[in-house]
Amino acid sequence: MAKLIKDVVHGYIEFDQEYIDIINSSEFQRLRNIRQTSYNSLYPSSLHDRFSHSLGVFAFGKYAFYNFKKNVEQDFSLEVQSAEIDWAKKENLFLSACLLHDIGHSPFSHTGEDFYLLKRDSNSSLARDQYIYAELVKAVGQDEFKNDFNETQLKNGNAAKPHEIMSAIVGIKKFLQDKTADDKSLFARMIIGLRYKSANSISTGIDNALIQLLNSSVIDVDRLDYLARDRLMTGFESARIDTDRLLASVCLINNSSDETKPNYQMGYYKNALSVIESVIVAHDGERKWIQGHPVVLYDSFLVQKLIEAVESTYGNNIDIFCEESLLEDGICISDNTGSSLMIRYLSDADILFLSKQIPCESEYREFVDEYFSRDKRKKAIWKSEAEYDLMLRELGDSDRKRVIEWLESLINDLIPYGDRSDATSVIINDNVENKVNEDNQKKAQLGDIEARDSKRFAESILKKMNILKEMAKEFNVPYNFVLSYTKAFDSNAKKLISNDVLIKYKNFEFAKPVGDIISTYTLNEHSVLKKEANKMIFFMFYYKTGGNSITPLGFINYLKDAIR
């Protein structure tokens, strides 16, 4: 018996009973308590969650599959009949993957997912960041998947994000236990975006198209839903996307001139081209003006500090961010006093509750207080990448290069004194200074060449930090900074152009790569980032106002003179 669920984006979505059973499970209901985005600090109305988003991806997936099947049967009727395609099985696996693609998301979504890579297992010879990869391979249980996955993930490191890996693991173990290894492989491939190497049969071509339809680098049903949902819930006026037109145009293309060696790929009919450009514009706008906003970036930094605080206080040889904590059995954690707690269906609320229990003497207490008290938060000196770019333009080429390299070196020097080697933010204050001095004193006791090198390195770090300490005095603000970096904005048009998305024209013998058709998006000719294209690093600098402020020009001119 089918059931209708009302959604703010899609209206009524119809689910058959087997999908309702998934939705009603505790593991899926957990997604109600996982924030969809980190935008709430900037847009108070963006309170939507991974639960509603997953329903939305299912809705788009259902519509896309219907049109894709219709178009394939129309364009390749003889091949489809000959291959005896099991459309019902493919649809079931695809819609299950759409519904479950985020089942393994961590608390606070993307902000927390890298903590899955910090698995501690004394009985394993695997590197910490490879543990969940091995778990996925084991869950699928197929050699072809193992070989393809290891080649792309372990060698190239680009097969999947941590939450995708965890979603595939949880999805298989909880909901696909009775499926064959081939079915588990296809399900996992759909979630992590891992296509089959060869698509010389129409059945495999269809499978690869469905994989792309859920998880591609630029356009997929996952992205379409969160763009529509984020736009609605934030009120951010991005480009409108005609999803009906786009998904009605999804098709299969034989991109081979050799009739004996077909090569089937997903593509779009030509009438989708304008919508494809709209997707690029909408996603670029969200990335540049929301994800790159200093308030959002700093909120993500604070959330990571909350998680680090919880892991440090309660994670005594136990990884809180793990497969077990997402499921019914859960894990047992304890604090330094021996008090124990059970964590099941791990969510944002668990992290928030536990972080409130952090002792006053903890080094993390400052960040906990900042998170829960807006007036205690640090503020950014410049408010956007554009302002950062304009600030750097005030400097000559040599000064600008020196400043960028100085900031980059400071981050690289201080990362080892944080809690995570993969961090993108560093703290600059007296506590970190003390850590550098203590570390130097310990190594100096060794009395060898390594100790002397360590001493010189520590002195170099302290010299850089002292420049910022003096700057704090100059502007009469507390000596308590956060320096963050991220990649500078780069339009997704470049991904699309380098991708193998094909556009089908009836009047041309072969499909055309979308990069040969659409216009390109380039950086402003005057942009510092374009001049420093080999760097393409965007910094944010946060400080406590203390009643006083630091202007972008004040900061850059002080730093320019101080590091000469």
Label this structure with key terms.
four-stranded mixed β-sheet; globular; alpha+beta; 24 helices; Hypothetical protein af1432
How would you portray this structure in words?
- With 564 residues, the protein is α+β, with helices and mostly antiparallel strands.
- The chain has 3 domains: 3-34 and 41-290 and 496-516, Hypothetical protein af1432, CATH 1.10.3210.10; 293-377, no CATH class; 378-488 and 536-564, no CATH class.
- It is 52% helix and 10% strand.
- It has a 4-stranded mixed sheet with strand order 3-4-10-11.
- Strand 5 (331-334) and strand 6 form a beta hairpin.
- Helix 6 runs antiparallel to helix 7 and helix 6 (131-140) runs parallel beside helix 8 (162-175).
- The longest helix is centred in the C-terminal third of the chain and has 27 residues, at 449-475.
- It is globular, with a radius of gyration of 26 Å.
- It starts with a strand and ends with a helix.
- The relative contact order is 0.10.
- The mean pLDDT is 89.
